[in-house]
Specification:
Mean pLDDT: 95
Structural class: alpha/beta
Radius of gyration: 23 Å
Number of strands: 25
CATH topology of the largest domain: Rossmann fold
Shape: globular
CATH class of the largest domain: Alpha Beta
Strand content: 15-25%
Number of helices: 20
CATH superfamily of the largest domain: P-loop containing nucleotide triphosphate hydrolases
Distance between the termini: 13 Å
CATH architecture of the largest domain: 3-Layer(aba) Sandwich
Largest sheet: 12 strands, mixed
C-alpha cells in the first residue's frame, strides 16, 4: 500500500472556499491561509443549531506505543457517514511538533482516512501553536521583568510557579537555571520548560467561549505568590490585553478537508496524558453549528481523554455526545492479554480473550457516563476472520454494538459498516443525557478519589506532602468547585506504565498538584509523569527530509 504522504499528495484537494460553501459559510468570511486552509470567525457559531446536532465521541482502549488508530477511525467515520448521505464534519486537535519529530511522525490520520494538506497540518499549520508558545513565554518575560524591577521591595515575590514552554520534546530543558552571568541579565532562579500542549494557555484557548472569555481567563492565571502567600496573577502585572492580542487569530478554528473532501475543523491540541486532551470548545461548537453529525476525539485511552472530555469539556460547554465509539485493535487486546510485544501481530486467540478485560473496563466506564457504546475494530491486514468474529461475539454478549473499520485501506467505503452502526444506535437512543464522575461540590481530594477508584480501578489514593500543601491552597482560594485533570501515563489504568490489562489493588500516587486558575481546573500529577517529553532512541526527525521541494518522512 502507498504511504500516507503519497496518498495525501495524490488526493485532489478542493479549494477551501468551496469547502466553506459546503457548510454554509461564504468565501468572503473565511480568513485564508493559502488555497486549502482557512480560519472561521467565531460569529459563525450557532448555539441553537449546535444543540440539535448528533455529536459522537471517538475514544479507545488503552493504547500500545504504536497508537490505536483513533484519529484514522474518527476521520474514517466522517467519511463513512458522508458516504451514506449524512451532513458531517470531523473536529480534531492540531498535532504538536514534538511527537511529529519524535515518535509519531504525524497526527493527521492515515492511509485513505486523512485530513489534508497533511504536511501543513503536521508542521506549522496556521501558527496556532506558535502563538500559544509566544503568549506563554511573553508572560514569562514580563514576569521576569517585574521580578527584576521589584527586587528588594515589598512587591517582590516569594515563589514563582510559572515556567516556559516549547513545542519540542527536549528532556534537557525540564529543569534549568535562568538569569546567570551577572545582575544585568536578571535574577538567578530555577525554572524549566514544559511542552506547549501542556501550557495553561493551550487549555485556556480550548475552553474559552470567545475573545472576552479568553482575556478573562488569562487575567486569572496564577504566576506566583507574594510574601503573604497571596496569589500573584497576570492581572497584577496588567498584561492580559497584550497577551490576548497575541492570540487574536489563534482563537479562530481552522477549516481543512479530508481525503474525500469532507469538511474538517482542527483547533487546539492539549495532550490527554498531561493535559485535558480535547480540541477546543469553539471548534466543536462551530462544527455542530454547520452539520448534522460531528465526530470528535479525545486523546489516548478512554480513562484519560474521554474522562476529561466528559468531566471537563462537556461540563463547561454544556454539550453531550449521543454515543461513544471505542476503538480497538487485535494488537492492543493481545498486549493487554499478556502476549509479548513482539508477538502481538500473530494470531493468538487466548491472548485476545485475555485482553477483553481491558476493553470491558473501558465499556463500563463509558456506560457510567450514560453513553451508548459502539466498539470499532481498526482492522489490519494480519487480522484473521476468527479473531474478528470472537471480538464481535464478545461485544454482543456485553450489549454493545460492533463494527469493523477499514477506512485506512478503503477510505469512506471501508467505514460504511461503522457509520451505519453509529446512525442505527443514535436513532434507537436519540437522547443524550450525561452523568459525571463527580459533582462540582465535591472537594478536590474527593474528585481525585472518585476518578481513581471508579475510572482507573484504584484501591486508594496517596497524596505527597507537596500535594497536600496545594490542597490547602485550593481551599484557601475557594476554588474547590473546579474540575480535575489527572496527568497520568497513557499506557495503563494505573500510574505504572508497565501494568497492562486492568490494574488491580493499586494505590494512585499524586506527587503534585497544579492550580490552573485561568483554565479553571486543577491538575493532579500522578506517578512519574513528565510535562516535557523526551525523544526516543530513533527520533522520527531522522527520517524527515525535503527532496526536490517535496517533504518526506511525515506519516
Amino acid at each position: 500500500m502507498k504511504t500516507d504522504i503519497e496518498i495525501a499528495r495524490e488526493t485532489k484537494l478542493t479549494p477551501i472556499s468551496k469547502i466553506a460553501g459546503k457548510i454554509g459559510i461564504d468565501n468572503d468570511d473565511v480568513h485564508h491561509y493559502g488555497k486549502y486552509i482557512g480560519k472561521i470567525p467565531l460569529s459563525f457559531i450557532n448555539e441553537d443549531k449546535a444543540d440539535k446536532n448528533n455529536l459522537i465521541l471517538v475514544t479507545a482502549i488503552t493504547p500500545t506505543k504504536a497508537g490505536i488508530g483513533k484519529t484514522t477511525t474518527s476521520i474514517g467515520l466522517a467519511l463513512g457517514l458522508s458516504k451514506i448521505g449524512k451532513n458531517t464534519i470531523v473536529a480534531l486537535r492540531e498535532p504538536s511538533l514534538g511527537p511529529c519529530f519524535g515518535m509519531k511522525g504525524g497526527a493527521a490520520g492515515g492511509g485513505y482516512a486523512q485530513v489534508l494538506p497533511m504536511e501543513d497540518i503536521n508542521l506549522h499549520f496556521t501558527g496556532d501553536f506558535h502563538a500559544i508558545t509566544s503568549a506563554h513565554n511573553m508572560i514569562t518575560a514580563l514576569l521576569d521583568n517585574y521580578i527584576y524591577r521589584s527586587r528588594g521591595t515589598d512587591k517582590s515575590l516569594k515563589e514563582v510557579v510559572w515556567k516556559r514552554v516549547l513545542d519540542v520534546n527536549d528532556r534537557s530543558l525540564r529543569y534549568i537555571v535562568s538569569g546567570l552571568h551577572g545582575s544585568a541579565n536578571g535574577i538567578p532562579a530555577e525554572s524549566g520548560f514544559e511542552i506547549t500542549p501542556a501550557s495553561e494557555i493551550m487549555a485556556i484557548l480550548c475552553l474559552s467561549k470567545d475573545i472576552d472569555d479568553l482575556k478573562r481567563r488569562i487575567n486569572k492565571i496564577i504566576l506566583g505568590y507574594t510574601v503573604d502567600s497571596t496569589p500573584f496573577t497576570v492581572k497584577d502585572i496588567g498584561i492580559a490585553g497584550a497577551i490576548t492580542v497575541l492570540l487574536k487569530d489563534a482563537i479562530n478554528p481552522n477549516l481543512v478537508q479530508t481525503t474525500e473532501n469532507t469538511p474538517a475543523i482542527i483547533h487546539g491540541g492539549p495532550f490527554a496524558n498531561i493535559a485535558h486532551g480535547c480540541n477546543s470548545i469553539i471548534a466543536t461548537k462551530m462544527a455542530m453549528s454547520h452539520s448534522d453529525y460531528v465526530i470528535t476525539e479525545a486523546g489516548f485511552g478512554a480513562d484519560l481523554g474521554a474522562e476529561k472530555f466528559f468531566n471537563i469539556k462537556c461540563r463547561k460547554a454544556g454539550i453531550a455526545p449521543k454515543l461513544t465509539v471505542i476503538v480497538v485493535t487485535t494488537q492492543a487486546l493481545k498486549m493487554h492479554g499478556n502476549v509479548a510485544i513482539e508477538d502481538i501481530k500473530k494470531k493468538n486467540i487466548e491472548g485476545l480473550k485475555s485482553g477483553f478485560t481491558n476493553l470491558d473496563k473501558h465499556i463500563d466506564n463509558m456506560k457510567s457516563f450514560g453513553q451508548s457504546v459502539v466498539v470499532a475494530l481498526n482492522r489490519y491486514g494480519f487480522d484473521t476472520d476468527d479473531e474478528i468474529a470472537l471480538i464481535k461475539e464478545h461485544c454482543v454478549a456485553r450489549g454493545v454494538a460492533f463494527a469493523e473499520n477499514e477506512s485506512f485501506a478503503k477510505g469512506g467505503d471501508g467505514a460504511i459498516e461503522l457509520a451505519e452502526a453509529v446512525v442505527d444506535m443514535i436513532e434507537k437512543n436519540p437522547s443524550s443525557s450525561l452523568s459525571f464522575t463527580y459533582s462540582d461540590e465535591d472537594g478536590i481530594e474527593k474528585k481525585i478519589e472518585k476518578v481513581a477508584k471508579q475510572i482507573y480501578g484504584a484501591q486508594a489514593v496517596s497524596l505527597s506532602d507537596q500535594a497536600k500543601k496545594k490542597l490547602k491552597q485550593i481551599k484557601d482560594l475557594q476554588i474547590e468547585s473546579y474540575p480535575i485533570c489527572i496527568a497520568k501515563t497513557q499506557y495503563s489504568f494505573s500510574d505504572n506504565a508497565h501494568v497492562y490489562g486492568v490494574a488491580k489493588d493499586f494505590t494512585l500516587t499524586i506527587n503534585d498538584i497544579v492550580i490552573n486558575n485561568g483554565a479553571e481546573f486543577i491538575v493532579a500529577i500522578a506517578g512519574s509523569i513528565m510535562r516535557m517529553p523526551g525523544l526516543p532512541a530513533e527520533p522520527q526527525a531522522k527520517h524527515i527530509d525535503i527532496v526536490d521541494g517535496i517533504i518526506e518522512g511525515l506519516s
